[in-house]
Task: inverse folding
């Protein structure tokens, strides 16, 4: 299975400041179809995970543009340009290159 | 708007079968562009994908290797729902179980989730 490793595991940010989370995969996530199946989720306290970004950098409809994803190969980053109070929770990366999809261990964002 | 409504017992005895159901509204279980997944979450193991079912002219199932011998996912098309059946459970199967849709925009595109069911395996 592909191992997804996130850093840092926790992050404390002042509102209005940027935040960045790294996700590294144990294998190159470029699929033979030319797409890279790397996803970012946010799990707010007491809620189910919610998809933020798919295929590295595409925001799901309704996701604020302060969230952006980048990267390629084995190294990926989620950036929040200006953190807001509603952004608190645990962020997970996940790959979908092959069975099974696997998740990172999560990064807890606090304000 | 797609909604996934989960139901099932929250306490299961060791060695018994854990069964959960996910009722779909706003979409169809036999959609040819979606797949229907079960994912669980525990403090010790994090988020784990368990398996999925999907319809592409016929029904297919795929399971994670670590539960493949114990897991069955089935479908009730008239009720527009799918179910998880995990046999021979142990306390290590204690977790929050989620159903989730893998939508049409991408592969493994978990865009809608159920609210989760905390299942405890204990005698």
Result:
């Amino acid at each position: 299975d592909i191992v997804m490793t996130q850093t840092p595991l926790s992050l404390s940010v002042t509102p209005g400041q940027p935040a960045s989370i790294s996700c590294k995969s144990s294998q190159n996530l470029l699929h033979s179809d030319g797409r890279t199946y790397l996803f970012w989720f946010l799990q707010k306290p007491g809620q189910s995970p919610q998809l933020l970004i798919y295929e590295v950098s595409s925001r799901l409809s309704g996701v604020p543009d302060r969230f952006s994803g980048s990267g390629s190969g084995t190294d990926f980053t989620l950036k929040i340009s200006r953190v807001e109070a509603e952004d608190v929770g645990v962020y997970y990366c996940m790959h979908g290159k092959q069975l099974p999809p696997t998740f990172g261990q999560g990064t807890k964002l606090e304000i | 708007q797609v909604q996934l409504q989960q139901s099932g017992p929250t306490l299961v005895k060791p060695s018994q079968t854990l069964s959960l159901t996910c009722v779909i509204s706003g979409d169809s279980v036999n959609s040819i562009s979606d797949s229907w997944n079960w994912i669980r979450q525990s403090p010790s193991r994090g988020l784990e994908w368990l398996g999925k079912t999907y319809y592409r002219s016929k029904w297919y199932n795929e399971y994670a290797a670590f539960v493949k011998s114990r897991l069955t996912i089935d479908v009730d098309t008239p009720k527009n729902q799918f179910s998880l059946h995990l046999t021979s459970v142990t306390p290590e199967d204690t977790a929050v179980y989620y159903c989730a849709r893998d939508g049409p925009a991408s592969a493994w595109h978990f865009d809608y989730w159920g609210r989760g069911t905390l299942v405890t395996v204990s005698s």
Notes: The first strand of chain A starts at residue 4 and ends at 7. The mean pLDDT of chain A is 96. DSSP finds no helices and ten strands in chain A. Residues 55 and 84 of chain A are 24 Å apart (CA to CA).
